[in-house]
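Hi L.,

You mentioned the student needs an example of a multi-chain input paired with its predicted structure. This one should do, with 686 residues in total across all chains.
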Amino acid sequence: MESYLVDITLILDSTVRLAVPLILACLAGLYSERAGIVDIGLEGKLLAGAFAAAAMAAVSGSAWLGLLAGIGAALLFSGIHGLASINFKGNQTISGVALNFLAAGLTTFLGQSWFKRGGYTPQLAGDQRFNPITLPFANELREVPILGQIYYELISGHNIITYFAFIAVPVTAWVLFRTRFGLRLRAVGENPKAIDTAGISVTRLRYQALIITAVLVGIGGAYLSIAQSAGFNNNMSAGRGYIALAALIFAKWRPGPALLVCLMFGFLDAVQFRIQGQVFPIIGEVPVQAIQALPYILTVILLAGFIGRAVAPKASGIPYTKER
Amino acid sequence: MTPLPRWADVVLLPLLNVVLAFLVGGLIVLAVGQNPLQAVGIMLYGAFGYGSGFGYTLYYTTDFIFAGLAVSLAYHAGLFNIGPEGQAYVGGLGVILIGLALNGTHWAIVFPLMIICGGAFGALWAFVPGYLQAKRGSHVVITTILFNFIATSMMGFLISRVLKPAGVNSDESAPLEAITRVPQLRTFIELFKNSPVNLTFFLAIIALVFIYWLIWRTKFGYAVRALGQNPVAANYAGISNQKMIMIVMAMSGVLAAMVAVNNVGGVQGRLILNFVNGAGFVGIAVAFMGRGHPVGVGLSALLFGILYQGGQELAFQMPGITREMIVTIQALVILFTGAMGDMLRAPLARVLTRSSSPTGAK
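Structure written out for the whole complex:
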């Protein structure tokens, strides 16, 4: 019984750790897609953010400067995406795909040119990383059965970005549904013409959304390289941007459900390591690949309308052209 | 805005976009303190300078022609197929299954069957997203991305758990016998030394001609283009959009699967993990750069073939530049020819009208 509890707490603990970049990327996508800009490029921004954060942290010795660099890289990518999809009214999907390749190519290329370690950045230690924070009384309460254990393992002992990610969810919900900015943001994704008629700049609003997107996904990238790991390695985002996109669709572009779906996908990721080689009653051995594919398969089924209907913001993907 | 003259629209604008992509790429190389011109020289030598290099260039070109055509065909119907990577991977399953079933049989019999069987598997993997868009309303862009990931997991499982023969350590299927493999050109032409270019290269050339004929010379091709340019009008003209979407996606999958014939049937002679290695994604850049036209696709596939083979050479000669620079170039090409393809249209139109009418009509 006791060991089961420890096991479960540990799995949930790694669920949280694995869900953080998903949550941040998913919320990031939420802002831009709610504003009517499809963002296939989340994966690339996550990767670029991770690289810039690790590179800066290694050079400057400060995790905070690393974080800023991560956000900066994501902003640069968002800027290109905005230029292509808002100003030049290009195809947003193509732009996103291009940005994903750009990130994959540039991070490895620059990493090798700058650090000459086969695409890795130098190992980070101490203040170059965001280290776990022990919440008050966590050590004292550790001995308390169940609750103390959960507090010590699950709630305390994460880095600051993790706490930020979980706070960002209710804040996003508040911004989106309780502020004027949020109302406009949702409107520009559904009916940009109405926003334009009201005398508000569609371009400006969409760029604002892209900036928020970049900040969140840049932090998510920094989490990968300077909080969760101690440095950057090749293609370390490993499809998380796409999973976040899937989670966003799954959550039907709503912040609360987005958190739950990201936690669910994080959980699948966490158990994947645990069930390797284990034989279960009735179903037998579950191949790791089946668990890996599950988020994608679930999203396909959802998109096909077999479990509810996911309807994207109406104007998403369509560049806005002012009538003359 | 004055429309561009046809020659400018078809040749000049795409060319300018490509030049822009390479200029930015050159600037990036310059920014890390390397000489881009020297890099280009080394790449050209690596791609054409000696027999096996040239053979490798043609081998890569083969892959990129198929992937580029797969993306182009779907794009003519207004469908953005991002899934050639996965479709080629699953196509490899068809190729190896028929190859192993007839292992030891002469390639002249097996080669066409590999095309059919591999094509069928690739078609299936592309048909499902097509079906889901046509009948269930989910977008192919998202579903094909998801299918790439599902393919990776599924194939990983099949290769490591099902196809791997007992007593083999690495994750790969049993090998095909030499007589069953698609013959490499070096067996006929000495020039190609030890390069993997094989008969599939000619299949790629045939595919280019076939797709040109299909899209611009047949009723079916007309329906494809009608669907891509105006689905509503196509529907009124009596074209079943749903049926077309499914057929076009399946055909796109067949084209993508030919990458597997080239690699599994002609080079590896066995099914290995991730043999597609990004070729499917290069197809996206090739298709946009070539504007979906077989002549353009052929030329851009050759350019990327040069980049990939030349990039190998580059990695030996200039350690400061890794092969990933090629992925960066690929990204810039997609960005400038695909997403920002119309960026230079207005300025170009202004320049051209000014030069053609010196009296100054604005």
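You could point out the following to them. The beta strands of chain A are 279-280, 284-285. Chain A is about 70% helix and 0% strand.

Best wishes,
N.
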